[in-house]
Amino acid sequence: MPPWISRHEATDQSVVEKQVELLEFNMLEQGFSPIDIRDVAITMEQSSKGDTIVLAGIVEFLQLMLQMEDKSLKPHVFVTKEVLMASAIHYAECTTARQEGVYDIVREAIYQDQSHNWLLPADLSEPRLVDDPILEYFEKGSRKTTGAIILVESDGLAERSRDGSYGDEVSRIALGAAKVKRAEIMAQTVLTGRSWTKEESSKLRGLLLSVMDDWKSLGIRAVACLYRLDGILDNVDRGVMPYIRTPEMVRAAREAIRVYAPLAQRLGMQRLKAKIEDSAFRVLYKRQYRAASALYQHNGPAMKAMSRYLEGQITHILLENDQLMSQLEDIRITSRVKEPYSSWKKMVKKRFIKPSQSGLEGSPQRAIALSSPSSSELSMVDVKDGVALRVILRARKHDSDEPDETRARERLLCYYVHHLLRTQWDLLDTGEMKDYIQFPKENGYQSLHYNSFISSQGQEWPFEVQVRSEEMHRIAEYGVAAHWDYKLGNQNAAALPSLELCEPVRVQGDVVNEVEVSLPVLMPPGEDSYIGALVTAKDELVQNKVFVFFASSAAIANEGQILSLPVGAQVGDALEELETMIGSKLEIREGSHNLKIMKNGREASGDDLIGNGDVLLINHQSPC
Questions:
Q1: How open is the CA angle 136-187-185, to the nearest 5 degrees?
Q2: Distance from CA of residue 56 to its chain's centroid?
Q3: H or E stretch covering 544
Q4: In sequence order, what are the residues at sequence separation of 6 or more whose Cβ sits closer than 8 angstroms to the Cβ of residue 559?
Q5: Domain limits of the chain?
Q6: 543-620 — its CATH code?
Q7: HSE-CB of 368 using CA atoms within 13 angstroms
Q8: Is the separation of the CB atoms in 547 and 612 below 8 Å?
Q9: Could you report the per-residue pLDDT of 88-140, keeping only the tens digit for each?
Q10: Under CATH, to which class is 287-519 assigned?
Q11: Quick check: 224 and 184 in contact, CB under 8 A?
Q12: Do domains 287-519 and 543-620 have the same CATH topology?
């Protein structure tokens, strides 16, 4: 892993002081108290240990944290005083660990045949203590690593946790972020520095979720992903480095799109998700990003104005309908305009852009820039759901104990709302009506979709309307239908336990034979939030799955692997899964004189249990 690109190599102290003042002013504007601001400032000073460059980085990182606060997360709040303090600690720890060569340390621990190795934990989710022998082990080897606290708990943080200087919540969040980062380091080291495949990314999301102690820790790492991308772009913009798609840049951007953008979405941090995708798109495909941004700048203002107009019109039409309102307990109307990256993907999917021109995954590695003629022919108007309106309703109960009757009425009310809106705006063309209520998707998604258009100044502007009940919305946003592999179009759901419909939908071709299904929800009733759903999914995951790394070796063609296995799996099970993945027999069994299997630096047998985050290595033995 290359060093994190620093934007502060020649930072003047007076400039940093002004940046600190600006941060404090921004915190005050966002409602932080003077005491909160003082505590964050003290933590920044203590964490930087007088290093101006580190302090400047902390300030910039916290400014980005403030920008990524998302009102839609309520009742949950992400950017609190404790999160800012933990972020300052975490940033300084990452900087120290990188300076001390943490990636080399991990690589050395994986590939050196040691009789014992405390660096490679039996379970990544277990905290490492300050007196862990790893410190003594590496100091004896003339490698001082007391600062590499991504892998072990830092002495400074532990001391302040004990004396109460930081507080329990700050320490918990900072240590949680360190656990997630440690899992990232293991993945980046074992998977040989290459870009991760979609399936590997799915498993890595599962691994990061499984080691998550606090959702805010995962949020910090998602912001750190964006910070790294912005660092690359900042250096390019300032001329510090040329725009060359290095392997390191490509890995960072694809990791962002495949791992942290979906995680941000699952956290409910939509603004952060969109910003990660936008920055990664710009890093990966500069010319295509410019073309997509130009389209967005050209059409975006009109589309935003249209979305606001339509939202107002739909609200008026529905609220003025007394017959409808008498049947409803609640109704919500929202709208959105697709971001440049999402619009570009849709244009590629609909073949408005040739794959060779798209710059997106699946196209040739050397992307071909759009020519001026084809750019001028493109428009976001080509994306029929570039503007989308959503109606979410909850029926009034006639009796306190009638869930089935209420659900049936809600379905009918969805069709009635759809009829009212169709009367105002007809279908864009035939076939643009999608009934996922009568014919749910296989993942349980239910909603009514239809496309229409409005005319303005001789231009037809398409839009999509979605109508669903509150229960359908909860499942779509927080439950089975919101599964991130579905969102990415990945049919391999290796990262999460199997979640079947109670009565599976049976499909023959495009015809659904059974539509009466009982749909599960991945969280306790009432916890209709992204965070509640994510925590419930994490608990389900930990109870069902473990993730294990296979470090690269001659036996597996010099390419590391990550496996997803059931809880209680043994080393032998991991070997069988690896053989299936690579398509050849390894012939590693007990008694083999040529090869042996190492688990976390120790020789292992086939019936040894494996834990979350274990690192396995196949070693060649010299013949006696």
A1: 45
A2: 27
A3: helix 530-544
A4: 192, 194, 552
A5: 287-519, 543-620
A6: 3.10.20.30
A7: 13
A8: yes
A9: 999 999 998 888 888 888 877 777 655 444 444 444 444 443 333 333 333 33
A10: alpha beta
A11: no
A12: no
